[in-house]
Amino acid sequence: MTRLKTACILFAILPSLTAAAKADDLLIWSPAKLSDRSYKATLGFRLPAEWETSAGADVALAATTGGVPLPDSEQAMLWGRISRATVTPAGRSQQGARVSVDTLRGSGVLTLSRSRSWILSDTLDMQTSRSLSVGYDPVESRQASVTASQALKLIHPWTGTSLSAGAGISNASGDFSSSVGVSQTILPNLNLDASMKNPFSEDETSSVNLRYRLNW
What does the angle CA 116 – CA 56 – CA 48 come to, to the nearest 5 degrees? Predict the structure, then answer.
């Protein structure tokens, strides 16, 4: 009942906080009505600096027509992140860390990431990314887990063609995963993508997608 009262108070003050958010870019406020009886809101703050820092919470609630909260619909996630981007005429690099804690279920994840993009030659650009995640979940049989991943992409900017490859490993399952893909720009808003996961293994899967993006 306490959780329900807290959520009701929070969503009752949404309109006044929304007006304040528009006047201050340092305040993070993103309320959403998912359906007639379900709501979600992201609230927090950001501090612009060399290392941009932000922290906040994701809160969600869904209820029946009688006002009773639906089982497992409540969400109270605390999060924080810090990042720094460096831009030069030849490329861009970014590094950062993010932590999230599910206060209702006791789980949490810490992720460290780093990415870089630069001009490799007159006809090719390159992008690389790495991430390391440490998680804790009291419900799982192996409560602590570590997952590492790395990806590489080669881009031919003049034709809109890109080749990508990625790999990841997790100590929770002991599985090693890999993927390769190709993307081709057909029109400014139309792309053709083809990818294959775990090639040369029994779990091999592939997909081909035609994507059209429309902005308005």
Answer: 50
Burial group, residue 200, by CB count within 10 angstroms (0-12, 13-18, 19+): exposed
How does pLDDT run across 31-59, given as a tens digit for each residue?
A: 888 777 788 899 999 998 889 999 999 99
d(CA 18, CA 66): 28
Residues pairing with 196 in the sheet: 180, 206
Quick check: 22 pLDDT over 90? Answer: no
CA distance 96 to 85: 9
Q: Are 168 and 152 in contact (CB under 8 A)?
A: no
Q: Is 20 left (phi over 0), alpha (psi -120 to 50) or beta?
A: alpha
Cβ neighbourhood burial of 41 (10 Å; 0-12, 13-18, 19+): buried
